[in-house]
Amino acid sequence: MTAGFDIAVVGAGIAGASLAAELAAQGAQSVVLIEAEDQPGYHTTGRSAAFWEECYGGPDVVPLTLASGPWLRDNGFLSPRGALYIGREDDAPALDAFMERFEGSGVHIERLDREGLTAHLSGLRPGWVGAVWEPACADIDVSALHQHYLATARKSGVRLVTRAQIVGAERTEAGWILTDAHNERFSARVVANAAGAWADTFAALVGARPKGIQPLRRTVAQLRTDPAPPATLPLVLDIAGRFYFKPESGRLWLSPHDEEPSPPCDAAPEALAVAEAIARFETVVDWRVAAVERKWAGLRSFAPDRLPVYGYDPAVEGLFWFAGQGGFGIQTAPAAARLAAQLLLDLPRDAMTAELDAGLYDPARF
Asked: How many CB atoms lie within 10 A of CB 346?
């Protein structure tokens, strides 16, 4: 049996859910959202320690982040946090370079000395002498945001199909016929590749050239510490990229900031990564790690230039890319999904997307 749609979105994490909701809102006639797992968001979206952080992803991602911020804030998905990029004495050039890199980008950051740093972070060990302070950083309620997009899509007529791993694809005169592992078929004029870590795998399945989108494993552990982290503790990141930590419901979420290349899979944390994270954390503050309460890992997928991939494939008709969003896909979801829907449907920009340069993210750049 073949079900017919105008657009098939493959992948129901934050990328696919937000794109499907925007497509329906902007007038797409019929949209199906196809997910291989039992539930949407099982992989990266459901394992994110997400925060809205203006500098995350670099200057060419900043426009997507800043365009998304007001929508996330106005709709109640952000909680104030603040962020500190901290450094030792020999990291001073890196802190200065960070300030210079984002000059004129629209982000709000300031340079702190040790006195300014200790005002935000108690128990700081000797040797940490400076920081970049980003006051606008905020926690994101990832689950609520994802569910919002799924609910919006459903109310707009999008059909969600789970347990539907696509194993076959055929290009016809009218568009595409996708076949899942249960031999269910879906026909669509356009297929949107929002498959996350599986984006290149899916591209190869439909006959497109992969873009070099590489999944990278990121590990997070939840720690019980003495003292417990204050609820007002900012997100703390090493300017050298060796750790970050933040408070969560009286506990500490800690990552070694690892980026281990991985095949697309159900990622699992490695004990060594957790041990390295704790060892690095203990060089920062004099808090005692009382217990590792849980640990997990997710995959963050990057194109070779670490920018997202949005737009029609230059060689395969009817294939649209919405992938390669690394760890910033959640914080940029509102603007990214709206921009992508406008590109897919050939619609004019609106106030949220008017200043975005879609050429930075075009699949043809590869």
From this structure: 7
Cα–Cα distance measured from residue 111 to residue 236, given in angstroms and rounded to the nearest whole number: 14
Q: Which residues of 266-279 are buried (b: 16+ CB within 10 A; e: fewer)?
A: ebebbeebbebbbe
Q: How many CB atoms lie within 10 A of CB 323?
A: 30
Residue 287: name the closest of 340, 236, 216 by CA: 236
Q: Which pLDDT tens digit goes with each residue over 112-159?
A: 999 999 999 999 999 999 999 999 999 999 999 999 999 999 999 999
Which residues, listed in sequence order, are joined to residue 137 by a DSSP beta bridge? Answer: none
Q: Residues 177, 185: contact at Cβ < 8 Å? A: yes
For residues 70-95, average pLDDT: 97
Residue 320 three-state SS: strand
303, 161 Cβ separation under 8 angstroms: no
Q: Name every residue whose Cβ is closer than 8 Å to that of residue 178 and which is 6 or more positions away in sequence.
A: 8, 10, 34, 166, 168, 169, 185, 186, 187, 188, 191
